Amino acid sequence: MAKRPVKTKAKPKTSGASKTKAAPSGAGILQSKALRFLVIIMIVGLLGLWLLLWQGLWREIPMRTQSQMLNIKQGQTYSGLIAELSEKGQIRFPVMAKIYQRLFIHDTLKAGVYEVEKGTTVQQLLQMLSNGKLAQMNRVLVIEGTTFGQLRKRLDSDPNVTHTLKGLDNQQLLKKLEINQPHPEGWFAPDTYYFAKGETDAAILKHLYRTQKKVLDEAWQKRAPNLPYKNAYEALIMASIVEKETGIPRERQDVAGVFVRRLKVGMRLQTDPTVIYGMGDNYKGNIRRQDLLTPTPYNTYTIDGLPPTPIALPSKASIEAALHPAAGDSLYFVATGTGGHVFSSSLEQHNQAVANYLKVLRQKRAANANPAGVSP
């Protein structure tokens, strides 16, 4: 029996176009690449902007201590302050800080002393400075070489200090402060201090006294051998003389060396600052020959040895110099007239140095009298 042919369905023919997707056109490829490029550019831009914001605003201000005092002077501007902090390396990309201040801070910069704690960002600092109520610290500057009387006047005139000592004489003041010293001169450390507004003058002076006493005690324990001082107080007296005699740091030990050698050989100190201190209100800006001959407890031209008390508030550097005087044989010194002093070991050398100094003074007077250099 013959087999019947089996019918099969014919598969429809498919063209090559129906088997694969249509290839994108050249324009489509370019658009896709451009889109990806724009996305990358936007991401890079956003990352760059974030980096600028972080460095310029959100980065912590670098500090070596747990806090620092920022003194804002009257009339100082945000722009000037930002530039100043940028120069110190505490603000990076200062333009970001300036833009932020222009956009979000419209108050003027408030003068005062601000305590900036470690961890504070530039943005937080700018916000803090816009609130003058946060300027709670009062800056008290005690200049080295000033007298205790000048320090009292400064405190008495400070509106940010609560005054509890006005009207008291020195002995009453020392008693109230519970300071067991015969005289206040020299016992208060010169430096820049920061106190809360409204702090009492008594608390401020106690702090300055404790600071100075600690400096003196520590320096006394480490003093050089064979010094002609009976006690640390005499070293404080010498330090005050050194402080008044030179404002040049490298000369302090040399000046102390001259005075220490004079004490050892029994020479009088013959130092003008002690004469001036002894004159008190009678000093009018210059010393006459008669003043050198007029005895006072402080006139080291007429008394032997040290004066009875310090004559100023000496710095730590001057205390160190008094207790570590420079070695040598110089017994005299005089100003050069152009800055600094000339140190001499003999009276002959000293007299020549004095003559040179007087010559410089005459030349200066002549130049001041004829500043244009025109011949008379």
TrEMBL record:
Q: Is this entry keyworded Cell wall biogenesis/degradation?
A: yes
Q: Which segments cross the bilayer?
A: 34-54
One cellular component term (GO) for this entry is: plasma membrane
Classify the protein's membrane topology as the record does: Single-pass membrane protein
Gene Ontology terms describing biological process:
cell wall organization; peptidoglycan biosynthetic process
Where is it located?
Answer: Cell inner membrane
What EC number is given for this enzyme? 4.2.2.29
Q: Which domain of life is it from?
A: Bacteria
Q: Which CDD domains match?
A: MltG_like
Q: Please state what class of enzyme this protein is.
A: lyase
| Site residues (Important for catalytic activity), renumbered to this chain | 245
- For region Disordered, the annotated ranges are 1-24
- A Pfam family name for this chain? YceG
Catalyzes what?
a peptidoglycan chain = a peptidoglycan chain with N-acetyl-1,6-anhydromuramyl-[peptide] at the reducing end + a peptidoglycan chain with N-acetylglucosamine at the non-reducing end
GO-annotated molecular function? lytic endotransglycosylase activity
Q: Where is the composition biased (Basic residues)?
A: 1-12
Sorted alphabetically, which InterPro entries does this protein's record hold?
A: MLTG-like
The entry's keywords:
Cell inner membrane, Cell membrane, Cell wall biogenesis/degradation, Lyase, Membrane, Transmembrane, Transmembrane helix
Provide the primary localization. Answer: membrane
Q: Does the keyword rRNA processing apply?
A: no
Do you know which PANTHER family this protein is assigned to? Answer: ENDOLYTIC MUREIN TRANSGLYCOSYLASE
- Entry similarity comment: Belongs to the transglycosylase MltG family.
Function (record text): Functions as a peptidoglycan terminase that cleaves nascent peptidoglycan strands endolytically to terminate their elongation.
| Protein name per the record | Endolytic murein transglycosylase
Organism expressing this protein natively: Alkanindiges illinoisensis
**Taxon lineage:** Bacteria, Pseudomonadati, Pseudomonadota, Gammaproteobacteria, Moraxellales
Name of the coding gene: mltG
